[in-house]
Specification:
This protein is an alpha+beta fold. The chain contains eight helices and 19 strands. The two termini are 23 Å apart.
Length: 346
């Protein structure tokens, strides 16, 4: 992912708002009017300041801010929650929700086909925890080191480093992804030693917290859609898919178990918290070939993401991939090609 996330970062404990909505968003969403708000009727929600034409509209907003506040935390509606911020003057109301965009081109593309760019959680509806899913699940887990191994959560950091040239500029591209035993997750991209990232923090009490990071500076995320986007990114990985697959086997008789649905040709779907990942494997040996899902990879638009593995190694009793390629709608993602991933427990 290119370092667009830098636009969302602020240094300091109480950063200034990312931007200001000078138009009354309540009036815009309720009746479709563009009315300028007043400095005497304003509030800050998330990373944005909102102004209103009346005290009544300000009260309405405060009573239900998630309905009237900009969606995706103010990120560009076309490029997604973890991309750069949008511009309040480039706004559209779709389905009684307000979206903003980084450019007029992004706005036009989104308005034409909004469902193409809005990532939704999905649910399996048939073939749950039934044969051939059960048979294929066992073969995959046996090949990968055994269900007992994958059921036990351990911390893992996966690091990659590959040279890449984009738009004529050469980069040393390094990534680091940390998966914690309690669901913690950190993803960092470094481009010529400039690092950008985000992480999920699991506090002892309270809700999951998200944070953006840039070279040591940290900004807490107060917008639930951005936190959910990070959870989806974490769960759409080989590590999470195999862990969820083992979990679905050990808790198959329980109503809170993750579910799996499979086919005889070597495809099995696993789902946890609404996120579906398809694992493609050899139907006889269980050897994993790749994983696929419909969603967003980095800052790409919504599409069919496929990660194909070309090399594995044994690590901590588990078989893990060390080289892979990524495509979105069958188009290669150059910055996501990995030639030699390494694994560590820290």
């Amino acid at each position: 992912m290119l370092p667009m996330v830098a636009a969302l970062l602020a240094v300091g404990q109480t950063p200034a708002p990312t931007g200001v909505f000078t138009e009354d968003v309540v009036e815009r969403i309720r009746v479709g009017k563009r009315v300028t708000g007043l400095l005497t009727h304003r509030t800050v929600y998330g990373a944005w300041e909102y102004r209103f034409a009346s005290a009544e509209n300000l009260r309405t907003f405060r009573q239900n801010p998630t309905k009237f506040a900009v969606q995706l935390g103010g990120a560009c509606g076309r490029m997604g929650e973890l991309s750069g911020v949008g511009r309040p003057e480039l706004s559209s109301v779709i389905g009684d929700r307000l979206y903003i965009f980084a450019s007029a081109g992004c706005q036009r593309a989104f308005v034409r086909t909004p469902r193409k760019y809005l990532e939704q959680d999905e649910w399996l509806t048939h073939g749950l925890n039934s044969d051939p899913a059960v048979t294929l699940r066992k073969r995959i887990l046996d090949w990968a080191g055994g269900a007992a191994r994958w059921e036990v959560p351990i911390p893992v950091t996966i690091r990659t480093e590959d040279p890449i040239t984009l738009s004529g500029t050469a980069y040393r591209h390094r990534t680091s992804h940390f998966f914690g035993p309690q669901g913690e997750y950190t993803a960092v991209d470094e481009w010529n030693d400039v690092g950008y990232g985000h992480r999920l923090v699991m506090p002892a009490a309270g809700a999951v917290r998200g944070e953006f990071t840039r070279n040591g500076a940290v900004e807490r995320i107060a917008v639930s859609t951005q936190v959910r986007s990070m959870e989806r990114e974490r769960d759409r990985s080989y590590w999470a898919a195999l862990t969820t697959l083992a979990d679905s086997a050990s808790r198959a008789s329980r109503t809170d178990a993750p579910v799996a649905a499979g086919t005889a040709d070597g495809s099995i779907q696993v789902q946890m918290k609404g996120v579906i990942v398809t694992i493609h494997a050899d139907p006889t040996s269980g050897a994993v070939k790749g994983i696929a899902y419909r969603g967003r990879f980095g800052s790409s638009v919504i599409g069919a993401v496929r990660i194909e593995f070309s090399r594995f190694q044994d690590w901590q009793g588990r078989k893990v991939p060390t080289a892979w390629t990524v495509t979105v709608d069958d188009k290669p993602v150059p910055e996501a090609q990995v030639s030699a991933a390494t694994y560590a427990t820290n």
